[in-house]
Structures are given as C-alpha cells and as structure tokens.
C-alpha cells in the first residue's frame, strides 16, 4: 500500500498508486459500514476538527460520521460566513487551532487555495473538503470508487461530465483523477459555463449534449447553482433543462449500461429528470453517498498513519 | 567639484552604444564622455570596467505617503531606489488621500524633497478621488508641479467624463497616463483566463480586456488630441493597434512592467500571492511578444510598477490578497535577465528604463552625454546572488523574486553628481 501524502489538498498531488491505495482501503470500510457494529479504532484518541467556512450538510455529516466510526473525537466548528473574507481570521484561526493540538483538520472554504494556505500554517494533517472552484478530492475519490464498483474498473472508460464546469471543484478533481487513471473524459456544457483553456487539459469539450454523451460509460451530472440560473450565465432554467438536463431521451445516446452520477444535492427538473435520478438500474447517486463515508474513512486512516509515523520519527530524532 | 569616472563601459541609450571610456562630472552635470584627460584637482573613480549608465527614471512608483507609511515612506523608497539604480522616481497619486489637489501635491513634494536621496516627481489624479466623476484642477496641479495625470488602475467607466478631462488636459498640454483595461470584463479577476486559471480555480480575465480598454482610450485620444501614455501593455493582442496608432502619428506612448517581461502566469504556482500583480501575469506567448515589442521600440518604457504591500495584505487566499510587488531594488537585476537571455541589449534596456521615460515627461535625465544631469548608475551585469527579501530596503518585502537566483548588482548611484549609494560602503 502506497500513500505518502501528509495532507490531502487535491487530486493533483496524488500518484495513481496512491489513488488505488485509497480505493482499496475504502472497500474494507464499505464492508465495515454495512455491519451492525460499525467501529474501528484506527483514529482512537485522535482529535478531528471539521471546519466549514461554507455551509454544508452532506459533506460535513459524511466526514463527521467517518471520524466517529474510526474512533476519533470529532468536533464541528462552523465559522460565520461574514468573517471568512478576513484573511487574518484564516491565519489566526490556524494559530488558534495549533494550540488545541488537533490531529486531523477537515476544511471547506469558499476561496480557491485557502486550504493550501491553512495547511502551510498548521501542524496536523489537513483534508480539503472543497476550496472555492479549485478541488474537492474526496468527492473525486468517492466517485472513482462508485465507478469501480459499478464498472469493475476505473480505467479505459468514457466519462462525460455535464453542466456547470466553470464553477465546479467536483469537475476539476474528477477531471484530474480520471485523467490520471487513463480514462477518456468529456466535458459537456454551455460555453458560458466552460472554463477557458480547458481543452488543453487532456479532455474533449462538447456543447451539444447528445453528441457528448455518445457511447459514454459514465454520465456525471453537476449541480447548477441557483444564482447562476437567471440570465447571467444561461438564459433561463427551462432552456437549460431543455438543452442540458439529463433525461431518458438524452441518456439513450450513452452506452446501454451507462451509469448516472450526481454529487448532490440535486435540482430535480433542472439538471436531471427526477424519475431518472431514482431509477435504480441507472442511477448510482445513493451509492455515491455510501462510498463517501467509506472513502473519507480511508483517507483519514491513511493520513493518520503517516502522521503517526512522522511524529514517531521526530520523537526519536531522525531527520525527516 | 569635479569627478572623473574612468575605465567604465559607457551605456549610451541614445546612440545605442556600449563602449569603454570615461565620464567627467562637473557641478552636478556630465561635461564630457569618451576619452577624457584627467583635469587637475578632479577626484578619480576607477569603475573597474563595469557598466555606467544613466540612472533609471521609474514611471509609476507607489509610495505609501500619505496614508500607508507603514508600507513605504519617501525615505525607505528613496533608499531602495538609490540601491537599485533608480535616480528619478515618478510617484503615483493612488495614496490615501489621493493626490488630487494642489495642497496634497505640495505636501508630498515637500516630504519627498526632505526625505529621499533620489529625485522624486509626482503625478496627480486625473479625476477627484480617482473616481472618474469630476476632473481635478489640472491647471493648478500643473502649476504646483504635477508631471502627469493618472487615475492609476482605476478605469473611468463614464466615457463622457473621461473625454472632457482629456480635452481639458490637451488644452493645457498635460500628459495623461491611462490603464488599458475593460473594467467590466476584468472585474473580480485574479489571473489571466486560460489553462492555468482553470486548473487553479481562480477567476480570470481574458487578455482581450486589455485590447478593448486600449481601443476605447485610443478612440478618445483620436477625438481629443491629448498626449497619452498607456501604463502597461502586457498582451500580444494590444500590440498591433498600438503600432498602428503610432504609425498614424498620434502622440501616444506605452509602457510595460518589469514583472510582465520576466515572469508568466505559471509562476503563481500554488497560490503564491507575491506574484499577484495588476494586470495579472500573462501567458509565456504574451510575455515574449511584450519583450519583442520593447526591443522593437513599439513599447517605449519599462517601469518597476513598485507597489509595496504588507504581509497582512498578502497572506490571504489568492483572490482576496492585494495586488502589487515591490521592485525598486530588483528592477535592474530583473532587467538583466532579459540582457543575459539575449533579448535586449544594455543600451536598449536603458533606452526603455531611462531615456524614453525622461523624454516623455520632458525631463533632462536619461542621457549619457555632455550637458545632461549627472544621474548615473554603476553596475556589474554579471554578479550572481540569491535574493533575500528581508534584505530589501523597502518597508514592505513583497517581491516575487524572493529566493531566486539573480544576476546583476548596482555598485554605485549618483544623483546630480553626488554619490547616493555605494555597495561597498
């Protein structure tokens, strides 16, 4: 098993074998989570702080549950949105946290790069739970695990990511991960929601959804933020649904056994047809949530092992 | 007081020559260059074969006085300039309060004269508070010594107000400096849009925003006939219209910053905020096109765009961090990168860093010829060193070159024949 990272800040810093290690370990936690007694002592005695500078229910709950099942003492710190923009707060928060000696810090922040900045200043392992439009690594890992379990592999697949690519950290992390694992990635969306220069990142860009979905093994839908719906980026919700909403007709262009994914929370009738989302033969959206807990357990377990090893080396005075 | 500088490489930006020789200073002026016999009683300085050039005239330096003296004072900026071979600072009016009245202009003029070992001249705002709503007292400000008028990085959105201010400035023969940038397109941007911005998840601005800003301003120049200088041209797309405007005989010039000539967007790396400047660093293609434009003389002036920012304004998430970099002391060593890369000769560099800005502003500096003020810099283009930002003389240490290998060191600086910096002292 290979996993050398000290922090999990983004998929960008992970090697393919590290990604595989996370997925393999997560499989064991999937089994654990299905038992009646869902407990491990991997993080026993360790302190995990979840710090969310941006509102989140699902991701925060998933991290909290993951930590608790591994036996960590979990604390949730919700940080008021108004103080977020003050940079002193971020650095000062880091210093305050250091004094509390946490072992794992789970951070979500609305600014790209803010989690990297925090990681430079704290003395514990940092997990990025989403920074601005930059990365959301555990989401990409849980998507990879879901795909691997559904398709039996996580390479040589054609994966279509559809929707608001420009503002999506999920899309970025997935694009990087799927590329590293040698998949064919297609990005589908209106040009106003497509980041510039993205075609140079080793993926194919489509404006026509039917064309982009052709022969896809996996269809990943992205959430369209409410504030982007009215005129700024797209003309209207209904025009968006007409052109880019996933329904049975559009899905028919993908492979017959293509799976449908969504990071949630869904806007039924905006980016995805409600019935399709609930179709257990096609949709793996509920599996994604389940894999989320397992993947986060695996990530925290691996980071905790590295943290213990590093502290051990420091204690015996070995130069790192 | 007569001083003879002997055994020097004379960098003449006017003749574009680089020749061995001596230079004689008398009463603060250059009186002879080339093969000069030692006059009786003259102090002789052996330059050891190093380069002697006219002191840098740096157009567009931000100094924190008034309002942000903790970031930079006239004293600290003056000392940094002397150590960097900058003998004339042209200060920006984007202070707190803005330099937009004769009274504030007189204040900074007096403070600068008391505190700085190098010359400092001041620009004034074109509109009150740099808000783009009402023009300043351009006439009074000219009388009080304003050398040019600019709202710095604030782009006037009301084209009518701007056209009136430019018309009024034209009637007084004032030089106006503008920032070519379409404000709507560049709003909120922290990087240049493209692959890098997309990977980092940072809001980007298309390089086209510079061209659109340029075109609008150029239209107003054509309409009003004002003397106009574009502060920073940093993209390839803005170069053909600039060339065309010059060919058509309009009184326009353009500058660029040393950072845009020596760094590109990828230097930002993992959100390093010391690389956040305004406009944002560009692609490598744009950087190379800009360097070529300086070599060809399409871009006239290289500035340091010295902008001191304290640690608190920079130790923030990239989007929230303040833009700007200190550069008075790193200007010359950074410029030497272009020399060592074979892209610009030393006379070409000093044409853009000394002669052209002086000419554009109507100053007698920038020449290495008899009659010119003895504002000089002696430097060795080859001395290697690793930059340590905490050794900079500026109060703020926000340089993108921290820890980088540089070549080129200033050995001595003279202003009006008086030595204001000596590396060995």
UniProtKB/TrEMBL annotation, chain A:
Domain Aspartate/ornithine carbamoyltransferase Asp/Orn-binding: 157-302
Pfam families: OTCace (PF00185), OTCace_N (PF02729)
Taxonomic superkingdom: Bacteria
Binding site residues for L-aspartate: 86, 169, 223
UniProt pathway annotation: Pyrimidine metabolism; UMP biosynthesis via de novo pathway; (S)-dihydroorotate from bicarbonate: step 2/3
Keyword Cell division assigned: no
Domain Aspartate/ornithine carbamoyltransferase carbamoyl-P binding stretches: 6-148
Keyword terms: Pyrimidine biosynthesis, Transferase
Reaction catalyzed: carbamoyl phosphate + L-aspartate = N-carbamoyl-L-aspartate + phosphate + H(+)
Assembly and interaction partners: Heterododecamer (2C3:3R2) of six catalytic PyrB chains organized as two trimers (C3), and six regulatory PyrI chains organized as three dimers (R2).
PANTHER family in alphabetical order: ASPARTATE CARBAMOYLTRANSFERASE, ORNITHINE CARBAMOYLTRANSFERASE, MITOCHONDRIAL
Protein family (similarity comment): Belongs to the aspartate/ornithine carbamoyltransferase superfamily. ATCase family.
Classification via HAMAP family: Asp_carb_tr (MF_00001)
Protein role: Reversibly catalyzes the transfer of the carbamoyl group from carbamoyl phosphate (CP) to the N(epsilon) atom of ornithine (ORN) to produce L-citrulline.
Identification of the protein by name: Aspartate carbamoyltransferase
Source organism of this protein record: Albidovulum sediminicola
Lineage, opening ranks: Bacteria, Pseudomonadati, Pseudomonadota, Alphaproteobacteria, Rhodobacterales
UniProtKB/TrEMBL annotation, chain B:
Occurrences of domain Dihydroorotase catalytic (ranges): 49-235
Keyword line: Hydrolase, Pyrimidine biosynthesis, Zinc
Domain Amidohydrolase stretches: 343-421
One Gene Ontology molecular-function label: dihydroorotase activity
Alphabetical list of Pfam families matching this protein: Amidohydro_3, DHOase
Gene3D superfamilies: Metal-dependent hydrolases, Urease, subunit C, domain 1
EC number: 3.5.2.3
Domain of life: Bacteria
Record's keyword annotation contains Ion transport: no
Name of the protein this chain belongs to: Dihydroorotase
């Amino acid at each position: 098993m290979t996993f050398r990272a000290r922090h999990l800040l983004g998929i960008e810093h992970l090697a393919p074998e590290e990604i595989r290690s996370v997925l393999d370990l997560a499989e064991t936690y999937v089994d654990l989570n299905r038992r009646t007694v869902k407990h491990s002592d991997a993080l026993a005695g360790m302190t995990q702080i979840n710090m969310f500078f941006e509102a989140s229910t699902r991701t925060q709950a998933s991290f909290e549950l993951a930590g608790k099942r591994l036996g960590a003492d979990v604390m949730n710190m919700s940080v008021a949105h108004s103080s977020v923009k003050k940079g002193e707060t971020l650095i000062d928060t880091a210093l305050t946290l250091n004094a509390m000696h946490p072992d794992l810090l789970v951070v979500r922040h609305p600014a790209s790069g803010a989690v990297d900045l925090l990681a430079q200043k704290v003395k514990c392992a940092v997990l990025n739970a989403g920074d601005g439009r930059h990365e959301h690594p555990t989401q990409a890992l849980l998507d990879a695990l879901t795909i691997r379990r559904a398709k039996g592999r996580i390479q040589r697949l054609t994966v279509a990511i559809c929707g608001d690519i420009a503002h999506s950290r999920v899309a970025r992390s997935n694009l990087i991960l799927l590329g590293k694992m040698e998949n064919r990635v297609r990005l589908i969306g209106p040009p106003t929601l497509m980041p510039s220069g993205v075609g140079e990142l080793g993926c194919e860009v489509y404006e026509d959804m039917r064309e982009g979905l052709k022969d896809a093994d996996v269809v990943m839908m992205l959430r369209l933020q409410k504030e982007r719906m009215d005129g700024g980026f797209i003309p209207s919700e209904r025009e968006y649904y007409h052109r880019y909403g996933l329904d049975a007709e559009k899905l028919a262009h993908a492979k017959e056994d293509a799976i449908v994914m969504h990071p949630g929370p869904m806007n039924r009738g905006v980016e995805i047809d409600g019935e399709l989302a609930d179709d257990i033969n096609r949709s793996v959206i509920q599996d994604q949530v389940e894999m989320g807990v397992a993947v986060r357990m695996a990530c925290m377990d691996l980071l905790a092992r590295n943290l213990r090893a590093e502290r051990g080396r420091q204690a015996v005075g070995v130069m790192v | 007081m007569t001083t003879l500088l002997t055994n020097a490489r004379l960098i003449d930006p006017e003749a574009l020559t680089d020749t061995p020789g001596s230079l004689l200073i008398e009463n603060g002026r250059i009186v002879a260059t080339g093969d000069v016999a030692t006059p009786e009683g003259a102090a002789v300085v052996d330059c050891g074969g190093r380069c002697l050039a006219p002191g840098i005239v740096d157009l567009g330096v931000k100094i924190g006085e008034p309002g942000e003296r903790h970031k930079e004072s006239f004293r600290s900026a003056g000392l940094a300039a002397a150590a960097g071979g900058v003998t004339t600072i042209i200060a920006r009016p984007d202070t707190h309060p803005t330099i937009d009245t004769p009274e504030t202009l007189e204040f900074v003029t007096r403070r600068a004269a008391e505190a700085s070992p190098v010359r400092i001249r001041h620009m004034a705002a074109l509109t009150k508070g740099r808000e783009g709503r009402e023009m300043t007292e351009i006439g009074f400000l000219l009388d009080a010594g304003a050398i040019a008028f600019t709202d710095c990085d604030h782009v006037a959105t009301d084209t009518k107000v701007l056209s009136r201010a430019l018309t009024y400035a034209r009637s007084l023969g004032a030089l106006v400096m503008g920032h070519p940038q379409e404000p709507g397109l560049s709003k909120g941007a922290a990087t240049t849009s493209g692959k890098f911005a997309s990977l980092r998840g940072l809001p980007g601005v298309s390089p086209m925003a510079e061209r659109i800003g340029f075109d609008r301003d150029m239209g107003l120049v054509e309409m009003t006939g004002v003397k106009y200088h574009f502060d920073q041209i940093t993209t390839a797309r803005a170069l053909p219209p600039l060339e065309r405007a010059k060919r058509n005989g309009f009184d326009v010039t353009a500058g660029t910053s040393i950072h845009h000539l020596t760094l590109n967007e990828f230097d930002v790396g993992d959100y390093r905020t010391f690389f956040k400047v305004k406009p944002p660093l560009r692609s490598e293609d744009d950087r190379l096109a800009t360097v070529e434009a300086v070599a060809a003389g399409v871009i006239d002036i290289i500035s340091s765009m010295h902008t001191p920012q304290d640690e608190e304004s920079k130790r923030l998430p990239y989007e929230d961090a303040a833009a700007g970099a200190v550069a008075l002391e790193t200007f010359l060593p950074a410029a030497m990168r272009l020399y060592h890369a074979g892209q610009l000769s030393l006379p070409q560099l000093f044409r853009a860093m000394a002669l052209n800005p002086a000419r554009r502003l109507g100053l007698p500096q920038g020449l290495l010829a008899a009659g010119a003020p003895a504002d000089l810099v002696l430097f060795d283009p080859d001395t290697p060193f690793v930059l340590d930002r905490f050794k900079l003389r500026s109060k703020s240490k926000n340089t993108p070159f921290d820890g980088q290998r540089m070549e080129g060191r200033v050995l001595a600086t003279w202003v009006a024949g008086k030595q204001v910096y000596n590396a060995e002292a």
